[in-house]
Amino acid sequence: MPIDLIFNVVIAGVLTGLVYGLMALGLSVIFGVVRVVNFAHGEMMTIAMYATVVLFAAWKLDPFLAIFPAALAFFVFGYFLQSTLINPFITRPEHSQFMLLVAVAIIMVNGLLMIFGPTARNVQVDYQLESWELGKILFDKARVYAALTAMATSAALFAFFKFSRPGKAIRACADNHLGAKVVGLNVKHLYALTFGIGSACVAVAGCLMVLLVDVTPVLGPAYTLLAFVIVIVGGLGSMGGALLGGVLIGVSEAVAGLFITPSAKSMVSFALLILVLLFRPQGLLGRKS
Amino acid sequence: MSAPASPLFADRRAIGLLLALLALLLALPALVNSYILSVAILILYFAYTGQAWNVMMGFCGQLSLGHSLYVGVGAYTVAALFVHYQISPWVGVWLAVVICTLMGLVIGFLAFRFGIGGTYFALLTIAFAEFTRIGFDHFDWVGSSGGFFLKVESHGTLDLLNLRGSPTMFYYLALAMCAAAFVFCAWLLKSRAGYYWQAIRENEEAAQALGINTFRWKMLAVGISSAMTSLAGVFFAFYYNNLFPEQIFNISRSIEIILGPIIGGIGTLFGPILGAAVLTILADGITELVAAMGLEIPGVKQVFYGVVLLLVVMFLPHGIWPTLARKLGLGQGSGK
Fold first, then answer.
1. Which chain B residues are Cβ-neighbours of A98 within 8 angstroms?
2. pLDDT per residue over B126-155, tens digit each?
3. Which of B114, B130, B134 sits opposite A281 (nearest CB)?
4. Angle subtended at Cα A91 by Cα B220 and Cα A23, rounded to the nearest 5 degrees
5. Which among A27, A97, A107, A228 is the top mutation candidate for probing chain B, defined by the most B β-carbons within 10 Å of its own β-carbon?
6. What pLDDT is attached to residue B283?
7. Could you please report the per-residue DSSP string of A68-81?
8. In chain A, what residues touch B279 (CB-CB under 8 Å)?
9. Do B10 and B331 touch, CB atoms closer than 8 A?
10. Pick from A111, A217, A232: which is nearest to B123 by CB?
11. Residue A116: which of A105, A104, A124, A108 has the closest Cα?
């Protein structure tokens, strides 16, 4: 097998993996703070992808510009989802929370099926077909732009949690729920804010992903699983871990598709997940609880 | 009845109700048409799988989201033995049980030895089920992703030895499995293991402090649950006659298995049965309703289903059975 082919595949894997990472970042942030596993995460991702397709079809809005309305709408949606539906479930057992979000996921994926049907949709922009050449190695323009946007969004998120007042308050909630209440933080509002932020991450990731793959409703559950795999590998609740996990899974999928067969690519991801769970259950970059 | 922990068989009303239900179920095939019989089979199937899952989650508190693994492996094992070597399912089932129990024990061993619990354990079970699904997608000996098929006999045959026969035969088979599972679980709940499991479910650290070897008892729960679930796979293979990895190992199959007990009442004996009945009839009712309203777009049915599910989870957090049992003046049959 020619070495430059392998290089090309790995690079495409890294770039796609960064978008995966951003998607998983949303899940990780939500779990890290609210301690609820969002089983509707991939379904939210596909909704964002369809939103991008619709905006593009209606107004020729470039997916990179669709990011702004999509992120805003998802932030509001996530805020209300948490404050109305999920907040009352915070103290309920895990299986109860799981059922709630599975119900939400079922409604989402089938709602999309009702509206758009099972056929695949996509967006077509000029730069999807263009690429830069560096020797024998090709960089798809769309993939590079998407990866850069994913990194910029992640960086903004890091900065938000590190420096801003609400970001610090959210971290305080995550570290010590009771303590946060004692010092007068409005925990329910901060939870809703966190879910809103996590949802906005997914929205951005969805806008980017639609440049790389065609969207169908059944992608939802697949992305939910993918996001789980990534955050567990990277470390649930760790932001850097989500990005690292995304890149690892992106590369392993791409390489497995090349060496084994594309349909078996997620088998490698699940094997990786099982290994990580067994030997480093807190994830590669996670802290031991 | 003195202790609230053993209300089920001490409660005469419960026994009377149970016998009446059993009599009705025994007579059912003579009373209804083939459509209702097929719905009844589905209910019994989900009641059985729910009961099996309940041993692990409802009794012992270990959340598995990958039970489709045991259904699938059980189904493929007997089907492959039957198709390739003409081995009767009554023989093949033992191998299926052994393989599935071993898989359950391996997953349990890996998880519990390394201290994985709660959400992480649930995700680990999903990972194993998905891993196996993709594996079977490329397993040519059993047809890979193209599916694996059993020869369908004409409806007149009744070959109990090879499980070839009419829906009525499968109905009684499912009923027998359900009844056996019910009695077995009732016995388990009141056995030493049942009490240890409930202690682990309520507070694992406290259970450990009392000297319970939590690792061993959790392993027992996983082993029993996976063995029971593999039998559901055997039933599935011979009732449906076709197996596709994409369908049988899918995570939504695992979710279907656990919806019944959660909706019905987790940790109770009647919960899985009631939940299976409610959900199956609900799904069918929605199909009819959607058809009557002329809204037959793909997805409509599941959206209704999701909304109802959402409402039940929101407003009946402990499931239907505990609420209903209180109204009927029955014990909960849960050990709670």
1. 63, 65, 122
2. 889 988 998 998 888 988 888 899 877 665
3. B114
4. 85
5. A107
6. 86
7. HHHHHHHHHHHHHI
8. none
9. yes
10. A232
11. A108
Is 1.10.3470 the CATH classification of the domain at A3-279? yes
pLDDT digits (tens, 9 = 90+) for A20-38: 999 999 999 998 888 888 9
Q: Which range is least confidently modeled, A117-131, A249-263, B9-23, B255-269?
A: B9-23
Q: Mutate which of A89, A99, A273 to test chain B, going by most B C-beta atoms within 10 A?
A: A99
Contacts of A95 in chain B (CB under 8 A): 57, 63, 258, 262, 266
Percent of chain B predicted with pLDDT > 70: 93
Query: Does any CB of chain B come closer than 8 Å to the CB of residue A274?
Result: yes
Which of A47, A31, A188 has its CA nearest to residue A113? A47
Weakest-pLDDT range from A207-221, B199-213, B304-318: B304-318
Distance from A252 to chain B by nearest Cα, in Å? 15
> What SS3 state is found at B55?
helix
Question: What's the rounded Cα separation, in Å, for the pair A139 and A83?
Answer: 43
The answer to whether residue A183 neighbours chain B at the CB level (below 8 Å) is no
Question: Distances in Å between the alpha carbon of A268 and those of A260, B97, B138?
Answer: 10, 27, 13
Where do the structural domains in chain B lie, given as residue ranges? 33-249
Q: What is the CA radius of gyration of chain B?
A: 20
Selected residue of A110, A282, A288 to mutate for chain B interface (largest B Cβ count, 10 A): A110
Burial readout A48-72 (b: 16 or more C-beta within 10 A, e: otherwise)? bbbbbbbbbeeeebbbbebbeebbe
Q: What is the DSSP letter of B242?
A: E
Looking at beta carbons, which residues of chain B come within 8 Å of A113? 298-299, 302
Token couple for A264: 């078996």
Dist. CA A288–CA A204, nearest whole Å: 30
A228: distance to nearest CA of chain B, Å? Answer: 8
Indicate the pTM of the whole model.
0.86
Q: What CA dihedral angle connects B216, B219, B225 and B228, to 10 degrees?
A: -90
| DSSP letters spanning B60-83 | T----S-THHHHHHHHHHHHHHHH
According to DSSP, residue A137 is labeled E
Distance CA B308, CA B304 (A): 6
Which residue, A223, A225, A227, is CA-closest to A243?
A227
Q: Looking at chain A, which residue has its C-alpha nearest residue B246?
A: A263
Q: Measure the CA–CA gap between A185 and A205, rounded to whole angstroms.
A: 30
Instruction: Dihedral sign for Cα B193, B199, B200, B202, please.
Output: positive
Cite the DSSP H helix spans in chain B.
12-31, 34-54, 68-85, 89-113, 118-137, 167-190, 192-202, 204-209, 214-240, 245-248, 251-264, 271-292, 300-315, 320-328
Binning chain A into helix, strand and coil, the percentages to the nearest 5 are: 75, 5, 20
Interchain contact B314–A (C-beta under 8 A): yes
**Does the distance separating the beta carbons of B300 and A114 come in below 8 Å?**
yes
Please report residues of A whose CB lies closer than 8 A to that of B111.
Answer: 277
Helix (H) or strand (E) holding A268: helix A265-279
Confidence class for position A66, pLDDT limits 50, 70, 90: very high
Q: Where are the alpha helices (DSSP H) in A60-133?
A: 63-80, 94-116
